[in-house]
Amino acid sequence: MEKIEQILEELFMIEPELKNRSIEIRQVVALMLKERPQAEISPDFFNELRSRLMDKISEQPQLVVKKFIWPVMALTSASVLLLVIVLNNNYFSNKGLLSSQIYVNSLSDNYFGKIGNDNQKEMLINNTSNVSAARGVSVNTIPPMGVSKGLAVDQKMMIPDNPIKYKMIYQGDEIKLSDSQGAVYRKNKHNQSGQQLAKQIQKLSFGFIDLKKFANTKLDSLSLKEDRPNGYVFSVNLENNSFSIYQNWEKWSQASETIKKEELPDRDKIIKVAQDFAKQYKLDLNLYGQPQMIEASKMAIADYQSGRSDYGPESATIVFPLIVDKQFVYSNDGSIDGLTFEVDLRRLVVVNASGNFSINLEKSNYELESDSQKIKTALAKAVQDGYEVDGAKEIEVILGSPKKILTKIYQYNAETNENYELFVPALMFPVINQVDGYYQKQVIIPLVKDLADSQPSLVR
Amino acid sequence: MEREQSGFLEYYDQYFKKVYGFVYRRVLSRETAEDLTSEIFIKALKKWPGREMVSGAWIFMIARNLVIDYYRTKKETTDIETVFDLAGPINHLVDVANRQSVEKIKTAMGYLSARQRQIVMMRLWDELSYKEIAELLEQSEASVKMTCLRSLKTLRSYLPEKDFIALVIGLIILN
After folding, report:
1. Residues of the domain holding B118
2. Residue B125 and residue B48 share a domain
């Protein structure tokens, strides 16, 4: 009777007028239910079929590790395990656990707390000073941003004979800051990939031990080694969703000669090596943009070709830039973040490739700086707050119109004692003049309020 | 996404009864229903994409296709919508008691279109939700609901009055 009432209730919701004929409809429904052919289930049949299905499941190819070969298998077992998982479960299919995706979890405004706390500032100061070294000039001639407030003062830095001071001159269009709010992304450190893969591995039959007896397991990393000439090692870190592929050095002969200038391949050819490698291993590149060579590699090649340097570069780095919210992400060393390939210039092969196979992000909106004057002040402060030397020669660095990007910064959480990686909205100003000794190609100003107007250390 | 096969056995435990009933009511033979149900779950295991990836209608899609194949093999019909052709010979292995049961409503059911019959059967006999039926028949949920309603009205009109009264009295006595 309860079933009849439920069905009638559904029907009355579709057509309320039907309630006037509820007796007739009730009778039809009741009749239909009464005359329903009764499917009596045989418990034996249920159990037999269940057993058959269990057999079918266990018939799947399994790894049986023999006791006597256990020590030898230590290295390669992970490879076979991975292979079994791939074969049986399509683990790496587009919808699989390790598929290439960005997962974004939206949170309330200002969720990550204040961005730009003292600890973070100090970290950024140190990072920035590390990357501010000028090519061919003493490290100390480049203003180490904010260093006057940090360790460098106590260390009595050596003053070079011909100190140089750089001055940022903005010559771009009027800076328009239309967005009062912007999304800040935080990398979520806690992911389930390791636990889920561990579950799969525990189902495999190891002859000498029952892995199912282990509780609350987690797989941290996995590696797969190609046992062939010129083979590679694939390694995946499930703690941070990263992977790397690198040459299995046991299977590669060592290069002996330095590449000659005339043998240096052109940029497109080097990029194609990375592209072909990605294609060969079916690396999913859907999180990434068009590949490009990093500035340091471009310069190293150019310097060698022009004779400015006698050092013949052995490799060049190609980056497939990560795209988050339709924007590129720049690391705190000013380089673009993404999937990185190191290409051997002499042999035109990939030395290593590394990146993230998926990214778990938390997203929270923050108030952005809307005063363009403050941005210009921040640009100028990059020099004014730097290491001041009387009589230093001033060299102008001309900056063009900025573009919006995300920049990677770190935030320390005292409660969890952890550092978090944040992607923060920022403006990137290109350096448009050739400045001897200054090799940063852009200056980045974060747009989150408080960071923009008080963090010269963030300017690169 | 987790794709573990142990999840399949849980799924089997959950859906076995409904799937078996679904098949049985279309073949009206215990032996055939068991054969087909076995085939359905073995096929489902081969295709198993993981518990999170399957909707409520997923296993019934496999079941429906296999029932169609069964009837095609038997060359009794080529269309699932005419499977429940109460006027025609179904199968010599049909369980007699249930055949008598469906005979009572076969005339009225005969006035319904094949699609209407399917929807009524799926909702009232197989206890599939409107959403599941909609997915299975690739129609909108609203359309399925409306069709079910109209079908029941039609059934009421064509059920012979005397048979109907007799059945209702019987129902009252039984309840």
Report:
1. 84-169
2. no
Q: ∠ CA(A37), CA(A41), CA(A43), 5° rounding?
A: 170
Q: Are the Cβ atoms of A32 and B24 closer than 8 angstroms?
A: no
pTM of the model: 0.52
Task: Compute the distance between CA of residue A298 and CA of residue A343 in angstroms, rounded to an integer.
Answer: 13
- pLDDT per residue as tens digits for the range A203-228: 887 778 888 888 888 888 888 999 89
B89 shares its domain with B165: yes
Q: Do B64 and B120 reside in the same domain of the chain?
A: no
Eight-class DSSP state of B51: G
**CB–CB of A39 and B6 under 8 A?**
no
Average pLDDT of A229-258? 85
For residue B53, which phi and psi values (nearest 5 degrees)? Answer: -95, -10
Q: Is the dihedral of CA B83, B86, B88, B92 positive or negative?
A: positive
* ipTM value for the complex: 0.80
Distances (CA, A) of B167 to A192, B124, B150, B162, B174: 58, 17, 21, 8, 10
* Chain B: residue whose CA lies nearest to A2: B175
Rounded distance between C-alpha atoms, residue A362 and residue A364, angstroms: 7
Same-domain pairing of B72 and B33: yes
Q: Which residues in chain B have Cβ-Cβ distances shorter than 8 Å to A47?
A: none
For residue A84, the SS3 value is helix
**Domain-located, residue B106:** yes
> Residues A277, A351: contact at Cβ < 8 Å?
no
Alpha helix segments (H runs only) across chain B: 6-27, 30-47, 58-74, 96-110, 114-120, 130-137, 141-158, 161-174
Q: Could you tell me how many residues make up chain A?
A: 460
Instruction: Establish if A104 touches chain B: CB-CB under 8 angstroms.
Output: no
Cα-only R_g, chain B: 17
Model pLDDT, residue A406 = 93
Domain-terminating residue out of B18, B52, B78: B78
Inter-chain residue contact B20 with A30, CB threshold 8 Å: no
Q: How far away is chain A from the Cα of B77, in angstroms, using its nearest Cα?
A: 21
The DSSP output letter for A263 is: G
Question: Going along A296-375, which residue ranges are E strands?
Answer: 315-321, 323-324, 327-330, 338-344, 349-356, 358-367
Q: What percent of chain A has pLDDT over 90?
A: 18
DSSP A115: S
For B38, which of A27, A41, A49 is closest by C-beta distance?
A: A49
The whole-angstrom separation of Cα B143 and Cα B145 is 5
For chain B, how many structural domains are there in total?
2
Inform me whether the pLDDT recorded for B109 exceeds 50: yes
What residues contact residue B145 under an 8 Å CB cut-off, 6+ apart?
A: A10, A14, B130
- Domain of B116: which CATH number? 1.10.10.10
- Which residues between 137 and 156 in chain A have a beta carbon less than 8 angstroms from any beta carbon of chain B? none
Of B123, B155, B171, the CB nearest to A34: B171
Whether B20 sits inside 8 A of A95 (CB atoms) is: no
If asked whether residues B33 and B95 sit together in one domain, one would say no
Residue B30 in domain = yes
B45 C-beta neighbours (distance < 10 Å), count = 18
Residue type, A369: E
Assigned domain for B174 exists: no
Terminal-to-terminal C-alpha distance of chain B: 48
